[in-house]
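Working notes for the structural subgroup meeting. M.R. asked for a predicted model of this chain before we commit to crystallization trials. I am recording the input and output together here so anyone reviewing the notebook later can reproduce the run.

Input as submitted:
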Amino acid sequence: MALIRTGCPIWTHEQWFGSLFPANTLKEQSLATYARHFNSVEGNTSFYHIPDEKTIRRWAEQVPNDFRFTFKFHRSISHDKKLLNIKDELHLVLNRMALLEDKLGCLILQLPASFSPSQLGTLTHFIQLLPKNFRYAIEVRHLGFFDKSDNEKAFNQLLIEHNINRAIMDTRALFACPANGDKIIEDAHRKKPRVPTNVIATSDTPLVRFVGHPVIQTNKPFYTPWIHKTKQWLDEGKSPYLFFHMANTVDAPWLAEAFFNDFKQLYPNTLIPSMILPKTHNNQLDIFGA
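Returned structure, recorded in token form:
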């Protein structure tokens, strides 16, 4: 049955204790508590550090059977070596992630902006090394993959042929917010890619990374088209992954809640994740005067 996988880029934050999590929640209980609200997570931790076997097994034990981890390939593969001579690193990552068994949702390859269409042959070779029993998504940031040319067509066709998702990054809401000296927003503007939002499903589990405006209500016109697109994907039998980001990360759960509340209003008969969260301690509404 087609369903939505959704979550945040992390499963714990110090400011969630006493808001998203009950105040008496222990740090080691944060993943299990997070999994009461969300059925997936975009685990950015694996981009910087490959977790050991004991850690991965412990994570898997803390979540229900229908939970799915979505991790990134380590940066040594994507950024340091740019997919060249990476068999040892790839073998290590895949063996570790296999320990999650059915709780592994998707592995994301996030390529740097310097990785251009001229390296499509390198990407093709990398894809050929991947076992077919995992799901994958690839995120590109070089503008040559967004220019509607033969380069973009060749990239999309490569993904379709191998049943790999083109990871969709939507940062329009974030960049609609001027920094005005706010260091958190300035940092997010610097780190997040400002690339066209390419709405395409190259596999049956399309993956969207939505980066929100700091005022939650301001996001509605930006995410409403994703509600309609998600409904379309569900009707087509696809099972999309939707991950919600915020510049400060703290308020990401409540951005997801707003999205699914509006989804329910538009499509009341569609089966979607139930999203009733504790009231956020601070979603920056007062700061921005909304």
